[in-house]
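Look over this entry.
=====
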Amino acid sequence: MKIRFALSAVAIALSLAWAAPASAHCDTLDGPVVEAARTALDKGDVRLVLGWVRESDEPEVQEAFARAAAVRTRGAEAKALADTYFFETLVRMHRAGEGAPYTGLKPAGEIEPPILAADKALATGKLQPVGTLLSQRIEAGLHDKFEAAASRGKRNPTDVAASRAYVAAYVDYVHYVERIYDAAGAAPDQHATDAVHQH
């Protein structure tokens, strides 16, 4: 019970500390950036997306918005093309602000479980499912790596091959614990910090 409580606390901290742009969902068609872009286009208000980009990128986003808004009134096909153009521009600018490459828009439904859970927590105001998801993942990894090291530790110390297998498992286990510990105390994500200072 105590280990589950401790891991839940670590998991909640990790939900803030392990932000990784490479695995983010900001480039999916059902992600929050494109969702904000749809709302902005429908309401005719570019301000609804400017929070997703750096202040220095606002002019390019505003120009793309104006172009899309002008074209999307010319029929269904024109609207679809204009919307996609704006989605791509906005996501590209957002990714640049994260220091991540833009590799195109991804289809809807490709959001990974932890990110989906994190978004749902914000929508519902309930963080516990995120903590549970992360604590289960951490605890499973911890047990696997501990058991691998512990089982290899029961060896004849003169058996060099067995000793090397133990050392490899030991290093993997200790580094896993160290990474979790360090991430739980990590500073806030720099992109998020920069965005707060810019807006």
Notes: The chain is about 70% helix and 0% strand.
